[in-house]
Amino acid sequence: MSFYLHVVSFFLLECILNPFDFTGTFGQVLECWDRETREVVAVKVVRSTKKYREAAMLEVDVLQFLGKYDRNGSRCVQIRNWLDYRNHICIVFEMLGPSLYDFLRKNNYCPFPVNLVRELGRQLLECVAFMHDKRLVHTDLKPENVLFVSSEYIKIPDYKSHNEGTFYKRLPKSSAIKVIDFGSTASGHQDHKYIVSTRHYRAPEVILGLGWSYPCDIWSVGCILVELCSGEALFQTHENLEHLAMMERVLGPLPQHMLKRVDLHAEKYVRRGRLDWPDGATSRESIKAAMKLPRLQNLVMQHVDHSAGDIIDLLQGLLRHDPANRLTAHEALRHPFFTRYRRF
């Protein structure tokens, strides 16, 4: 343990002079050199507040638990060690590559080829199935929390680029990915009521206060796959009513039985058994933002030349409004979008 204290304290000093890579609300991630194993590691240094310390300790417990069943670390990021240093929880992880979001951003938000989306989706669903089998719900799946194992990429010609002077796009050399950030993981034994998930990847049952469990992860996976196919987040909003209206625009009406059971906080979004839209919209811009969205199948077909039918059908199963009717991770992995093609 003293070894890690020395490493972390050294790199905390270096970070002040030369900040590395990623700073978030939780704290900072540092690139460090493990002198014992002689490898580069990532150290997540968490802010010294009760909220973030508790989330960090939950993440340690979850990863140590999952590590007992995923000894090869093929699904989730591997934890090396952790320590409490001057009231900061410091978690030492294996070093991974960029997140799916960072790769998209540096690639000018160019969509991924459908074969790559297939392999990324397969691995992501395998991780979700693994967690759900262990009765855990991740609750915060998003492109920022899915990392490529390697940072290496190749450049290929891209004559469809809309960016002047840019005639190439990046493709990762390896499609291997791992899921990170388990600080919001919850038990799947019962339905929960509190708000989870980053806004763009939040399921309708969470917004409506109907209680959530495993299916909220499945919804997030569906949103991620659409984003990989199109290059942009599906639901770009920060308002609940606008978000629900966007869902109806892309996926069809929300079921009556869901709207009738909304909690007290969500009652204002419903009127006479229907979503109070557009009458309840906050502005004309909000109405336009929802109305400009195409139906899911039209959106996918704008970007997918082949396999469009299979991936549309898969996404419609992942993004069913009613969580009881949504595909499970295991059911999704048996979908023709995955089974009809060999791994590449």
UniProtKB/TrEMBL annotation:
Q: Where is the Protein kinase domain?
A: 15-338
Gene3D superfamilies referenced in this protein's UniProt entry, alphabetically: Phosphorylase Kinase, domain 1, Transferase(Phosphotransferase) domain 1
Q: Which UniProt keywords apply?
A: ATP-binding, Kinase, Nucleotide-binding, Serine/threonine-protein kinase, Signal, Transferase
- Signal sequence: where? 1-27
Q: Into which EC class is this enzyme placed?
A: transferase
Instruction: Tell me its EC number(s), please.
Output: 2.7.12.1
The GO terms describing molecular function are: ATP binding; protein serine/threonine kinase activity; protein serine/threonine/tyrosine kinase activity
The protein, known as:
dual-specificity kinase
